Amino acid sequence: GVQTCALPIYPVISRLLHAQMISSYTVALENGRNRTYYHIEDKGRAHWRLLKNGYDQFIRISYLITERNGD
């Protein structure tokens, strides 16, 4: 069967577009459908780095805690 994503992606894309963290453009295909392409902007890349740094720090701290406790 067809797998579906549990997280609705379009509200997230809409918020990122509105915050100017990504941009998009649409191309009309020969079959009459449209395909939308997305690009991460500098503002979005900076925000991603901030989130990634926080995640990396969380992982390091979690590792230290579990290693000390022998988990």
Question: Secondary-structure blueprint of this entry?
Answer:
Layout: H1 9-18, E1 22-28, E2 34-40, H2 42-69
Antiparallel strand pairs: 1-2
Q: Summarize the main sheet.
A: 2 strands, antiparallel
Arrangement of strands in the largest sheet = 1-2
Mean pLDDT metric: 91
Silhouette: elongated
- Give me the count of strands: 2
Helix tally equals: 2
> Which ranges are low-confidence, i.e. pLDDT below 50, for 5 or more consecutive residues?
none
Percent helix range: 40-55%
State the secondary-structure class.
Answer: alpha+beta
Distance between the termini: 39 Å
Strand content: 15-25%
Listing every helix as H and every strand as E from the N terminus to the C terminus, the arrangement reads: HEEH
Question: What keyword list fits this structure?
Answer:
elongated, 71 residues, alpha+beta, 2 strands, 54% helix, two-stranded antiparallel ribbon, single chain
Describe the protein.
There is one protein chain. By secondary structure, the chain is of the alpha+beta class. The protein has two helices and two strands. Helices cover 54% and strands 20% of the residues. It has a two-stranded antiparallel sheet with strand order 1-2. Strand 1 and strand 2 (34-40) form a beta hairpin. The chain is elongated, with a radius of gyration of 19 Å. The relative contact order is 0.10.
